[in-house]
Write a structure and sequence with these properties.
mainly beta; Methylamine Dehydrogenase, Chain H; 2 domains; four-stranded antiparallel β-sheet; 3 helices; 17 strands
């Protein structure tokens, strides 16, 4: 049986059936404009569909493993794809039908489960738009939209399943297989001084360890 995607009205009637996939779809994302749908499958491809006509617009086939998640940017100009190949790809939709990825985000060491863009409120507040990715490697990575890694968040002790920004873009929440949800304060994280952060972690050790010299105990003192 050929895999299909069926779209339904909330009260039950089917609106359209999308056909043409070679394998089951395991991820879906609506364009905010409402006229296109993206699907990702076990055949490593992404399909873009015209929702109004049911026609297949294009297929994108640069990933080398199944597509776990898809997300459109708030302005619908970019599509992000997360894959079991450990990579995130950004696709430029400004021309209508992309033929190749704009950039590939590399840094995760295992399957990427989820991707999400920061909300439009960040751009309105003159803050840098971000993309967050969550992985089986237990980390969350924050990226600029031109593909630069901003920081890695690594407090979880098991795979990270999903990430979501607060509506104002100042907080990020992550859900993990370690049975926790962590709230990340992005204002604090993005303005963090690496030395201050490291000292916060080791300050108690510097004060209490019996093996340190008096000079070493002052390493984090002003």
């Amino acid at each position: 049986m050929q895999p299909v995607i069926q779209i339904w009205q909330p009260d039950g009637p089917e609106l359209v059936t999308l056909t043409g996939r070679r394998s089951p779809a395991i991820s879906l994302a609506w364009k905010h404009s409402g006229d296109q749908l993206a699907s990702g499958g076990r055949d490593n491809t992404i399909n873009l569909w015209d929702f109004l006509t049911g026609a297949l617009i294009t297929s994108l086939a640069e990933h080398t493993a199944p597509i776990r998640d898809l997300a459109f940017s708030p302005d619908d100009q970019l599509l992000a794809s997360a894959s079991e190949d450990h990579r995130v790809k950004l696709w430029d939709l400004s021309s209508g039908s992309p033929t190749r990825a704009l950039t590939t985000l590399m840094g995760h060491t295992d399957q990427v489960n989820d991707v999400t863009f920061s909300p439009a409120a960040i751009a309105a507040a003159s803050q840098q738009p971000l993309l967050a990715s969550a992985s089986v490697d237990k980390t969350i990575k924050l990226w600029t939209l031109d593909g630069a890694l901003v920081t890695t968040l690594d407090r979880h002790t098991a795979k990270v399943q999903e990430v979501v920004f607060s509506p104002d873009g100042r907080l990020l929440f992550s859900a993990s297989g370690d049975n926790t949800v962590i709230r990340w304060d992005l204002d604090a994280i993005l303005q963090l001084d690496p030395l201050d952060y490291a000292c916060d972690w080791v300050r108690n050790y510097l004060k209490t360890s019996p093996t340190l010299s008096p000079g070493d105990r002052q390493l984090c003192e002003p």
